[in-house]
Input
Amino acid sequence: MTLLRNAASISRRTLLAASAATLFTSRIAFAKAQTDKRLVVIILRGALDGLAVMPPHGDPRYADLRGDLAIRPPGALKSALPLDGFFGLHPAMVEMHRLYGAGEAVFFHAISSPYRQRSHFDGQDVLENGAGAPLAVNDGWLNRALTALPGAEALAIGQNVPLILRGEASAASWAPSYLKAADDDTVARLMRMYADDALLQPALEMAAATDAAVGEMGARKRRGAAFKADAEAAAKLLAGENGARIAVLQFGGWDTHVNQGAETGQLANRLQQLDAALGALKTGLGPAWKDTAVIVVTEFGRTARVNGNRGTDHGAGAAAFVLGGAVNGGRIAADWPGLGDRDLYENRDLRPTADIRSVFKGVLHDHMKIPAARLENDVFPDSAYAKLITGLVA
Output
């Protein structure tokens, strides 16, 4: 595995620490956090099609706009799973539907960051920096929130710390190693060699703790089912009494310009993998699930109309989800704008009617107990119009 700490620059010794850290697997605990609450943020990179994952069957324009990509309403074979009579859920999302039925999920529709252009890079930047524009700040909103959570460890599952976790507070990334594990004698020699090194010794210890907690997840990821393997790894790292408290997972592959599919096909396969990952996260967290909130977001939505390649292009309004045992769920939050020509944003996209930062603020305030004033002034500057949503957690 590889464990790297957040840093402005990486020196030779830092790289040596990371390399050495891949060689052994002793067990050392994370620092004791001052909260039992867990927060997981899952970023779906590439722009998830909200009109497919949460089809609005109650809108009379939906079927015509979507044509062959329209998800059939509940009741037909391989049709949408029923929600509230207006919206359905893609049939691949069986676990998410179960969470909704158990009162452990809130679904949002026609929601977005403030970004209204169609660049993946800029859209993801705005989603993660928590500001109103690309490059407005150079750190992430979740890192700024960490400064209000003493002792809480934050971890990204992947090779690098993404923008959302970069900044003043310490954060790390974990990814499976493709190197053969060192034997006990090599581990002991490394520990003695770097026992007095202020940089290498803590890096080795943190890497060891993470690798020991995750166990065989790296090997499973190499065999496939990467989404699920990442979620299982995150669950193990979060579940323990002294485990991490915040984790970020990143799932790519949602840019469905060509042959998107409907109830089956490319997008359905991706949704099934996401659904399996959510199930693995709940199972792996065990008793800690009751203290967990999971936010699932994407940089923007996709066009309401189908393109000439049986896919959809970059859009505006999207869907988002808040899940977990701590969530006051079983409901849908949507100020639905409609799908008529005059209702669409620039006559092509689902019009956003809510700011995703309102969701972020609500979870951070009610679940992680970060004061509203700090959220407004420090974590999400210049976002006063994105009002904090209360009541998302039980």
Remarks:
- The longest helix spans residues 266-285.
- The CA atoms of residues 228 and 276 lie 6 Å apart.
- The longest strand covers residues 105-112.
- The chain is about 30% helix and 15% strand.
